[in-house]
């Protein structure tokens, strides 16, 4: 494998591994979900804006009213899904929320069919049925840190986050001509502005240790992670992107087990495997690896999901 192939592979793998630790960072910060989302938008967005300025992308950007409006709408969806996902961690568990959240690619297929008239293949319907069957299995069998069943509200919030992310992805499909770094910078800026008033109700933590966790979330798990993803995803075959995307939920489950004492039951583990197998399965055979087709959307935790085709 040449250096030109190895570097994007390592970049994408690192980004997916980082994504899997976001839940732990959120919980360790001790802050309420809206405050965490604000910190991620403010710190990460500021760094992304500086990156775009340094690259000369922001000064040269002349968006149309439609593009700007769609970018703002996508930002609302993106930030909303962060809030819901972060809130779900405390009500279920990192691993349960992360896996349930990965139903979002299948929801996106439904939105594309409903609003863009795209055809839904039978394979997508089968995968959707398997995935949501897995969610039902998780809902009935998963347990939290105290050994009690997870709260269904946590699973509901994770599904709501998946729906909002699918909405953000759907909007981003209309903005493929905009550089993704720039779109992420705009959307995180929108999020910071939108969430700033919420700090009056759910303020940022004051302890230095907790603030450092939020700074880490904004710098490493947002700005750096976006840069790594956008530098690598266009250079990798879609099947490779799909396969390595498994690192995100797998790392999240391992972190939950190792540091938070989560012990998946067998039915819960089966449900998790069903969701991941259905939502992250590779593209159909025959797609050229030289021209990987990927969505340009950024997910609530910073990943980008391979575009789904029949």
The gist of it:
This protein is mainly alpha-helical.
Order of helices and strands: HHHHHHHHHHHHH
The number of strands is 0
Strand count, sense and barrel status of the largest sheet are:
none
CA-atom Rg in angstroms: 18 Å
Helix segment count? Answer: 13
- Report how far the terminal alpha carbons are from each other: 30 Å
Mean pLDDT: 87
Low-confidence stretches: 283-310
Helix/strand/pairing category: mainly alpha
Please provide a written account of the structure.
There is one protein chain. With 310 residues, the chain is mostly helical. Helix content is 69%, strand content 0%. The chain has 13 helices and no strands. It has helices at residues 3-20, 22-29, 33-55, 65-91, 94-101, 104-116, 122-141, 152-172, 180-195, 208-232, 238-244, 247-260, 266-279. Helix 3 (33-55) packs antiparallel against helix 9 (180-195). The longest helix has 27 residues, at 65-91. It is globular.
Features:
mainly alpha; 0% strand; 310 residues; 13 helices
Spell out the blueprint of helices and strands.
Elements: H1 3-20, H2 22-29, H3 33-55, H4 65-91, H5 94-101, H6 104-116, H7 122-141, H8 152-172, H9 180-195, H10 208-232, H11 238-244, H12 247-260, H13 266-279
Helix pairs in contact: 1-10, 1-12, 2-10, 3-4, 3-9, 3-10, 4-5, 4-8, 4-9, 5-8, 5-12, 6-8, 7-13
């Amino acid at each position: 494998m040449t250096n030109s192939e190895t570097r994007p592979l390592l970049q994408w793998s690192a980004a997916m591994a980082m994504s899997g630790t976001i839940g732990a960072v959120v919980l360790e910060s001790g802050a309420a979900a809206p405050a965490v989302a604000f910190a991620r938008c403010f710190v990460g967005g500021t760094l992304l804006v500086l990156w775009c300025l340094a690259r000369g992308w922001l000064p040269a950007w002349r968006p149309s009213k439609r593009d700007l409006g769609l970018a703002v709408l996508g930002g609302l969806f993106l930030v909303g899904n962060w809030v819901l996902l972060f809130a779900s961690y405390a009500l279920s568990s990192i691993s349960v929320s992360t896996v349930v959240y990965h139903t979002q690619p299948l929801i996106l297929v439904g939105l594309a069919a409903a609003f863009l008239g795209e055809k839904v293949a039978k394979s997508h319907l089968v995968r959707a049925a398997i995935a949501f069957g897995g969610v039902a299995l998780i809902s009935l069998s998963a347990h939290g840190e105290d050994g009690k069943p997870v709260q269904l509200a946590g699973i509901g919030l994770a599904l709501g986050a998946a729906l909002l992310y699918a909405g953000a992805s759907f909007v981003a499909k209309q903005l493929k001509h905009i550089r993704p770094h720039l779109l992420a910078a705009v959307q995180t800026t929108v999020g910071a502005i939108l969430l700033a008033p919420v700090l009056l109700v759910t303020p940022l933590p004051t302890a230095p240790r907790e603030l450092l966790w939020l700074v880490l979330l904004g710098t490493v798990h947002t700005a750096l992670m976006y840069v790594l993803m956008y530098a690598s995803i266009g250079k990798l075959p879609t099947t490779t992107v799909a396969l390595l995307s498994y690192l995100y939920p797998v790392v999240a489950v391992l972190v939950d087990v190792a540091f938070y004492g989560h012990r998946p039951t067998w039915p819960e583990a089966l449900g998790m495997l069903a969701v991941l197998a259905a939502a992250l399965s590779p593209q159909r055979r025959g797609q050229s690896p030289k021209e990987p087709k990927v969505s340009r959307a950024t997910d609530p935790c910073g990943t980008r999901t391979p575009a789904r085709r029949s």
